[in-house]
Amino acid sequence: MKGREIHLTSRPLGWPSTDDFCMAEVAVADPRAGELLVRNQVMSVDPYMRGRMNEIPSYVAPFGIGRPLEGGAVGTVIESGSALFAPGDVVLHNAGWREYATVAEDAATKVDVDLAPPSAYLGVLGMPGLTAYAGILEVAALCPGETVFVSAAAGAVGSAAGQIARLKGAARVVGSAGSPCKVAYLRDIGFDASFDYHDGALRRSLRTAAPDGVDIYFDNVGGRHLEVAIGAMRPHGRVAMCGAISMYNADEPPAAPRNLALAMGKRLTLRGFLAGDFAHLRERFVAEAAGWLHRGELQYRETFAEGLPAAPRAFLDMMRGRNLGKMLVRL
Fold first, then answer.
1. Exposure string over 95-125, b if 16+ CB within 10 A, otherwise e
2. How far, in Å, are 59, 114, 322 from residue 51 at the CA level?
3. How far apart are CA 166 and CA 174, in angstroms?
4. How far apart are CA 198 and CA 183, in angstroms?
5. Which of 211-228 are b and which e, b meaning 16 or more Cβ less than 10 Å from the residue's Cβ?
6. pLDDT over 90 percentage in the chain
7. Separation of alpha carbons 177 and 179, rounded Å
C-alpha cells in the first residue's frame, strides 16, 4: 500500500512559501509488534511548527529536509500489532502531514468520539486547550476578580484561554484580534471587551478596554503586544508567555518590548511555558473542559482546509491569521 506525505524541501528565510514543501508518495509500513497503522482523518497546523523549520537549537528537534513533517493528527486504526488497540479505534498521535502513519502504541492516545468530534482533540480538547488551561490556571495562577488580557484571542489557544479565565472567575477578560469579524466573535463567546490591533492604536485600545490595568497577560504574539501589556500591568502582574507569532518570520531582532525595566518596579512575573510541561493535567483538563462543552459554557470554532495537498497553504494561512479558531486539514 502507498500513501502520500508532505516533506520540507528547504529551510525558509523569513516567511515560508509553498516552494518550501513538496508531496511524496511512499510505501506504507506494516505495523510490527507494539505498533498501529493509522489512517489519518484530520491533522493540525500550529505556529510552533515554524520554529522547527529552522536548524537552530530549541526544545524540539528541527524538521529534517526531505523528510515528512510532524504534528498532531487524529485517525482510525486500520491494523494493530498492539493488545492495547483494535482496528476501528480512533487515536490521537503526532504523525500528521501524511495520509497513513505507523505509530508506536505508547505514542497514541485513544479518544472518545462520543464525547466530541475527532477534530476537537486537536483543538479545544487537545494541545491548544491544555495550553490555555495550564497557562491561565498554573502559569499565571489566576485569582478570581482579576483582569486578563489575551492576544491573538480568536485563535484556538487564545479563545480557550479567555473563556477559561472567565469560567474560573476573572472579573474582566479582554482580547485583541486581527479583524472586525474576529473582534465580534470574541464578544459572542463572552469576552468583556475586544479590539482590532490593526487599528494602529494598540496602547489606547488596551487602555480603553481595561482602564484599571491588567493583572494577567496571556501572550501569543510578543513584540509590540508584550510591550503594551507590560505598560498596562498592575503591580505583581503575571505574563504567561505562550508564543510570539509576530516574530517567527522576522529577519531582524524585534524592536519591542523596550520597557522590560518596568518588570522590576512593578514586580512582574514573565514565565515561558510549553504544553508538554503540564501533561499531568491532561486527564483533569479533558474532564473539566468536556463538562463546559456539554453545558455550552465553552465554545470553539474550526477552519478546515480540504485534502493533504492543501496542508502547506493551510499552514501559511494560519501564520497570517486567516483562520478563525483552530486551523485544521481534513484528510
1. bbbbbbbbbebeebeebeeeebebbbbbbbb
2. 10, 35, 19
3. 10
4. 11
5. eebbbbbbbbbbbbbbbb
6. 93
7. 6
Q: Please state whether beta strands 172-177 and 147-150 pair in parallel, antiparallel, or not at all (unpaired).
A: parallel
Which residue segments constitute the domains of the chain, with CATH numbers given?
Answer: 2-123+300-330 (3.90.180.10), 127-276 (3.40.50.720)
> What would the grid cell of residue 167 be?
469560567
Q: Where are the alpha helices (DSSP H) in 44-171?
A: 48-52, 127-134, 156-167
Say whether pLDDT at 142 is over 80: yes
pLDDT interval class at 299 (50, 70, 90): very high
Mean pLDDT of 200-214: 95
pLDDT, tens digit, 9 for 90 and up, residues 62-114: 999 999 999 999 999 999 999 999 999 999 999 999 999 999 999 999 999 99
> 253 pLDDT exceeds 90?
no
